[in-house]
Amino acid sequence: MNKPQLVWLDKGKETFLDLNQYDFVPVEKYGPGDNKLYLGDNLVLLKYLLENKQKVDLIYIDPPFATNSRFFLKRSIGEAGYNHKKGVFKFPCYEDIWQEGLGSYLSMLYERLKYMHQILRESGSIYVHVDFRVSAYVRLLLDEIFGEENFINEIIWFYKTGGVPEKIGFSKKHDTIFFYARDKKKTYWSPQKEKSYLKHKYGFSNISIEEDEQGKYTWVYCRDVFDIPALRGNQPERLEYATQKPEELLKRIILASSKPKDVVADFFCGSGTTLAVAQKLERKWIGCDCGKWPIHVCRKRLLGIEKSNFSLLKIVKKQEKKAGLVKENNSKITDFCSKKDQKTGQNCPQVLTLVSFFEKNDFFLEEKKIFLQTKMDCLKPDKKLKKA
Ligand SMILES: C[S@@+](CC[C@H](N)C(=O)[O-])C[C@H]1O[C@@H](n2cnc3c(N)ncnc32)[C@H](O)[C@@H]1O
């Protein structure tokens, strides 16, 4: 058959990966159960799951979108709080920059999607969340790997967020989520319903009409256009993780495509939205992120959920471990060292204290943050300077 396929330089070139060179080091365990949160490159984990014949029922991924941006986790330090720029630390979480062009982005995703296809159970399905930058390419990759016949939906998640207008064109206010089955004939599906508000009240003699504070509505099967608000302002759910998605979005997906006790996996888990919702809906889960800060946020978020249980593991290269080199790449943290003490104009010594603290403590607790706050006087706004 004459099937069009996407081609780019280096397509199909696989990363050499010898699992014997890696250790999955347990860091913490909370409660019984098999849920696992991994800190490390998901490629290693995917290969490990495949070789150990581990299967999952549902995969949702929200990978980088080739946005050419850096993403941060924001935390307030000192009394100034969120409203004062000097009181906010931005911890670098991940870079979505592809120096070698889109081909290198596609290679990254292609290799991982092929593993995901293999670890999905026959009744399983995958949701791949992207946006206009890469959606056309990703659709073709998914058709190739999962088969066009297993395509189920192109979901449009649209939202209303602020921002500057486009110089030319309409405001870009939607993401695309591709939904594919491992095998469409065997895939699990539980139809979900949503409220549909009525513009007029005529012509609905045989359906039940309900009413809430927003008006009259009927229940209809969820459409492939998801009208779910993005996280905004000081919503309690918001964790200041730049690319955090709303729980309501994941709730709809997880309820539609999995049953309680099924295994839900997110290999680009960020702040852990998928895992938190899976936990609340009594699914089992596997999460992975290569960033220390997203894992920190995610761990803390999961600990806040009743009955949550999981093990946290670090994926490390054995050689690095032997040589005592098991350290995150903290080079970005040294950016903070360039902050100057407002009074002396010198590098701020407390910032250096903070940096060394982070280097020693992969997963710090809230109480330790209080300790830091008392150390961060130099970052408080200098009233005299402000007046001048
Ligand atoms: C768009 S964010 C996910 C946000 C998440 N859906 C949430 O609600 O918070 C993408 C995440 O993928 C992670 N990531 C990128 N490449 C990765 C890799 N090779 N292995 C594991 N995680 C990776 C980044 O650190 C980042 O946290």
Unique bound compounds: S-adenosylmethionine
Total count of domains: 2
What's the CATH superfamily of the largest domain, by name? Vaccinia Virus protein VP39
Weakly predicted, low-confidence segments: 79-84, 325-337, 359-368, 374-388
Q: Remind me, CATH topology of the largest domain? A: Rossmann fold
Structural category: alpha/beta
Strand content: 25-35%
Outline of the structure:
The chain is α/β, with parallel strands linked by helices and 388 residues long. The protein is built from ten helices and 15 strands.
Would you mind describing this structure in some detail?
The chain is an alpha/beta fold. The protein has 2 domains: 280 residues, 3-Layer(aba) Sandwich (Rossmann fold), CATH 3.40.50; 59 residues, no CATH class. The chain is 27% helix and 26% strand. The strands form 3 sheets. It has a 10-stranded mixed β-sheet, sandwiched between helices. A 3-stranded antiparallel β-sheet has the order 9-11-10, with no helix packed on it. A two-stranded antiparallel ribbon has the order 4-5. The longest helix is centred in the N-terminal third of the chain and has 18 residues. The protein starts with 21 loop residues before the first strand and ends with a helix. The structure holds S-adenosylmethionine. S-adenosylmethionine binds next to strand 5 and strand 14.
